[in-house]
Amino acid sequence: MKKIFIDSDVLLDLLLDRESFSQDIATLIEGSINSEIQLCTSPISIANIHYIIGRLENKNKADLNINKILKIVSIEKVDQLIIDKAANSKFKDFEDAVQNFCAIESGHEIMITRNTKDYKESELSILTPREYLAKIRNE
Predict the structure, then answer these.
(1) Burial of 26 by CB count in 10 Å (0-12 exposed, 13-18 middle, 19+ buried)?
(2) How many domains does the chain have?
(3) Domain containing 33 — which CATH number?
(4) In angstroms, rounded to a whole number, what is the distance separating the alpha carbons of residues 117 and 1?
(5) pLDDT at 43
(6) pLDDT tens, position by position, 41-63
(7) Helices marked H in the chain — which ranges?
(8) CA angle, 19 then 22 then 26, to 5°
């Protein structure tokens, strides 16, 4: 089974129905349900999503949205090794570094994010949802 790591910005696009972004991630998720693709994220993404939706809406909406996400993505582990790698990396943003090393240590080759510029230091293939969909259509 192919594993794809999804950053929190992309999941927020879906949950908040952000114009011009939400359809791409919805298409990616629909495709994963009927294929050999496992979508994954980190516990940091889940915490960020809950915090952001809680601030924009309320705690109940945040709880409901987390439960929706947990039905379609698996949560990878973050441990001491990942935090150490992130703390000693060249990433400008610590959270992005944690996401990156979480994906790498969990065996991912691809990360889906809208903030591709934040992952210049990554050894992963960093794609937007639209780029990923174009790539799999051409395979």
Answers:
(1) middle
(2) 1
(3) 3.40.50.1010
(4) 28
(5) 97
(6) 999 999 999 999 999 999 999 99
(7) 8-15, 22-33, 43-56, 59-72, 80-87, 94-105, 129-137
(8) 155
